[in-house]
Design goal:
The longest helix has 21 residues. The model has no long low-confidence stretch (mean pLDDT 93). The protein is an alpha+beta fold and 194 residues long. Helix 1 crosses helix 4. The protein is globular and about 55 Å long. The protein starts with 8 loop residues before the first helix and ends with a helix. This is Nucleotidyltransferase domain-containing protein.
């Protein structure tokens, strides 16, 4: 067992790939297609994360598949990963980040950005898609639309509907796949890893 935390940006990028849906399996070469890292770097990171009990692997023929190993250590690593994704977004989109911070201030529960901004395909005309598992002040958000001259689409679900694993909801599936968590990252990670 490693004595150092040993999290670097490459490790966070690898974990970010796993955070797109939280239920996918990846093999080493597939990880290299998603990220600008070499086969050797991907293998080293994946094996190290498996040793730390964040990931687990299984052999299918000659291919070794890695997936998330649910547990407290994985919850903490993926909470850090979600914060990393938020910081990267804040560095790249300071204007939108300012709006999201103000929305978070008038919202309770989990606040996520999804849609074109979350998956990096936003244009000048893109609207801001927000998912809130909890409550929000819709009038305050309307005021932000006017102030910033941008369309903000907010979808609010009660927390029990969001955390329920029995119901299949395509919107929740989409939000879990492509998102940037703006508020309560650990709560979100705990919900998806249970």
């Amino acid at each position: 067992m490693s004595k150092n935390l040993d999290i670097n940006e490459n490790s966070l990028m690898v974990l970010s790939v796993f955070s797109n849906g939280y239920d996918n399996e990846y093999y080493i070469r597939e990880m290299c297609r998603h990220l600008p890292i070499s086969h050797g770097t991907a293998q080293t990171i994946l094996v190290r994360l498996e040793e730390k009990r964040v990931l687990t692997s299984s052999q299918r023929g000659k291919i070794r598949l890695f997936r998330i190993k649910p547990g407290e250590i994985a919850t903490q690593y993926f909470t850090i990963t979600e914060i990393y994704k938020k910081i990267r977004f804040m560095e790249n989109e300071p204007y939108i980040s300012e709006i999201l911070t103000k929305i978070s201030a008038v919202s309770e529960g989990i606040v996520l950005l999804f849609g074109s901004y979350a998956n990096g395909t936003a244009t000048e005309d893109s609207d801001i898609d927000i998912f809130i598992a909890g409550t929000t002040d819709k009038q305050a958000i309307k005021n932000l639309e006017t102030l910033y001259h941008v369309e903000i689409n907010v979808i609010v679900y009660p927390i029990p509907a969001f955390t329920s694993q029995e119901e299949f909801d395509p919107l929740i599936t989409e939000v879990k796949k492509n998102h940037i968590i703006w508020k309560n990252a650990e709560s979100f990670v705990r919900d998806v890893l249970k």
